[in-house]
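In practice, a research group might receive sequence data for several interacting partners and want a quick structural hypothesis before committing to experiments. The following worked case mirrors that situation: the sequences arrive first, and a predicted assembly follows.
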Amino acid sequence: MIFIKKYFQVSFLFSSLICSSVMALEPIDLLITNATVLTMDENKTIYNKGLVAIKGSKIIAVGNGDLAKRYKAKKELNVDGDLVMPGLINTHTHASMTVFRSLGDDVPDRLHRYIFPLEKKLVSREMVRIGAQLANVEMLKGGVTTYADMYYFEEEVAKTVDQIGMRAVLGETIIQFPVADAQNAKEGIQNTLKLIHAYKDHPRITPAFAPHAPYTNTTDILKEITRLSLLHKVPVMMHLAESLRENEVIAQRSGGKSPVAYMAEIGALTPYFIGAHLININDEDIALLKKHDVGIAHNMSANIKSAKGVSPALKMFDAGLRIGLGTDGPMSGNTLSTLDELGQVAKVHKLVNQDRAAMPPVKVIEMATIGAAKALHMEDRIGSIEVGKLADIIVIDTKSPNMVPLYNPYSALVYSAYATNVKHSIVHGKLLMQNRDLLTVNENVVRKEALAFSDKVRKTVIESGELVR
Amino acid sequence: MIFIKKYFQVSFLFSSLICSSVMALEPIDLLITNATVLTMDENKTIYNKGLVAIKGSKIIAVGNGDLAKRYKAKKELNVDGDLVMPGLINTHTHASMTVFRSLGDDVPDRLHRYIFPLEKKLVSREMVRIGAQLANVEMLKGGVTTYADMYYFEEEVAKTVDQIGMRAVLGETIIQFPVADAQNAKEGIQNTLKLIHAYKDHPRITPAFAPHAPYTNTTDILKEITRLSLLHKVPVMMHLAESLRENEVIAQRSGGKSPVAYMAEIGALTPYFIGAHLININDEDIALLKKHDVGIAHNMSANIKSAKGVSPALKMFDAGLRIGLGTDGPMSGNTLSTLDELGQVAKVHKLVNQDRAAMPPVKVIEMATIGAAKALHMEDRIGSIEVGKLADIIVIDTKSPNMVPLYNPYSALVYSAYATNVKHSIVHGKLLMQNRDLLTVNENVVRKEALAFSDKVRKTVIESGELVR
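A structural hypothesis for the assembly, expressed as tokens:
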């Protein structure tokens, strides 16, 4: 009897051990191991020799490497100590304009003298598709996993985003004069409603209204857009406080108000609003932006290249506003990876604040990730590597000579990294780039289509002698 | 008889044809074909479908592709339409400091509070060699073919430059307090004389004096260095007009003079002089710099990262001064390719001049190539692709998505290119990098030595709690 009891005890112990061990191996899709994980969570937790476990579209674990024994992964990505961080977010661009990149770079009053006429001649459904494809390739290879776009024929952009597997907020332009896909602002609104209808439930695409600017739309249209945005619960993206001329026009319209104060006055600042640029603003404007919980896209490259000035982005960040980095369009920036902005953002804010300690690297990385997610009002889903969030993750090569040695990862990313140091990219749990090879689109085909279209651009606006610098 | 005459005539005709054709095939070492050649010559000539012919260390032809039939090349490099341009020149760096990159990035008064103490602990012959090796790899991969260096134990840097095959101006530091390789300025001068003796006739290495700054050397020492520089016909490189504190110290020493006016007064500005930074200068200083035909290194990244200000580089360029771009050291910049400076130089000068047309791309490329060659007083030998010049040439990949499409090569280089877009590098006629693979050094060994040294740095100054930010 004693023997029998013992036998059962031992047997039970063994089987429970085996059972618990088997039970513990949770099947997952992707396990990133041997990683230096910059989580960008609230405490800026960093795991050395860490891991990230991904199941479906979500992060189900992040922590020290010894957690690995809990999982049985379909695929393991041992990153050999490289940096693993949230995918970069580009809060403001006009992706399709890649096919116009570097045309008329330094032309004064360029928007009205150059860009609008150029677009009148050349923007088409085909141009938007071809340009967006190239932009997607450039952004994904540069570590951008989510971007916010404002352009025409946005349903064409949506198709390309759907195909490549990235995440995007896509805003259909609304403007008071005839453009490629609408005769007036009302048609622009109708186009947006169609886009909302088509993409409202897409897991990676958020449709949005994109009124061009306050000075290119009437007060009535801006109010109507706000109403519809609240009704459909979709973002409104707009250029705001970008030029001194805008301040003059809006002051005239509103009895002396700043563009931000005017927008607040007409009820157009809401938690669905995302403003790009915000260069010419004062402390009262900043207080209004905060009060109305709006998101802000800070585009350093484009703003200084156009000599428009430097947004008080550091002040807004420190005041707790929702602010992220953007590249602006490829005719403005001229590249599309948020990574290209990092060093400039740090350095130019030091310069204008006359303080080398101003805008330290960690703040810049925050604005490229979780800050940008907040700007897009998506911080519950993306922007950091935390359990329950969507798995939008990139891996940065630390073997490239510019990244050696690595004493401080934030500093290395901000002051040393190139967009081309991005090695792998994961969006919505799916590996889209491995060892810099794109897995969902053919990069050569995309380039060839863009080059073929650029021949048309060359013939139309360069060789014809029109719009030549 | 008639028949015979005719036979001889025809025969003579044939043989002379064959002869001339055979005679015309000049044997050369390297032929670059199918190139978009940005010569950076006086007229900024660009050859589409062009070629460059190299024999020994020199360029013997540049022009349209049909010249190819004149040559029989040992090696042909068909670059498929990519950009071929003069190798980039980095006019100011401290290469060996790569092993300290990103330490104490944002510490105020960093030179005295952080860098000098750090160097006192860690600079050694070994550190200089290991750091320079890594810097060489980074620079060569980033398109730099010539650099100007100021540091300690420069003969160690010289050995690494000799091995990798790059070109460099190497300046031994002279400073009035004890440093790693000298107890005082006089010992620094002795070290420089030894360097001059060893490298005076090297085909790719130019030894130089490198007094640290006017405020860290006495007037007597600066005069003695000037005398020796003229005697030995070697450059003097020095930080000049870099900080407001420097202006104060020199004003006190000289009865109110600016650093530039003081240097002119003591006879230290000569055609052998190369000044780095020149931030705090006025129009009289610029006139003095021009009058004395000095070279100038403009280091945008380092100057704005340290919040020191923006040099009036555009004014100096437009006034015809000898000015080129520099990266400064990797604790200041923090990367070492001149290519990383291009966009920042263009954009920040637009910002401070409040003019988007200011500092157009072609001027920036000039400062990265022939302008930099002028700054180093080497424009007779390098800085442009012209017959008779040394073959220091790089090839830039135009297939990378950020480089597509390519309407204006200067614009693409300045606003879009990454250092990693450099595909091939040739120095002194020799191919040193092909398809981004280095041919004269083992990049992995270089990285491993640097990482091993960085462990020592980590233990000495980080884990010990000393010098932590």
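Before designing any experiment, note the following. Residues 1-21 of chain B have pLDDT under 50 and may be disordered. Residues 2-81 of chain B form a domain with the Urease, subunit C; domain 1 fold (CATH 2.30.40.10).
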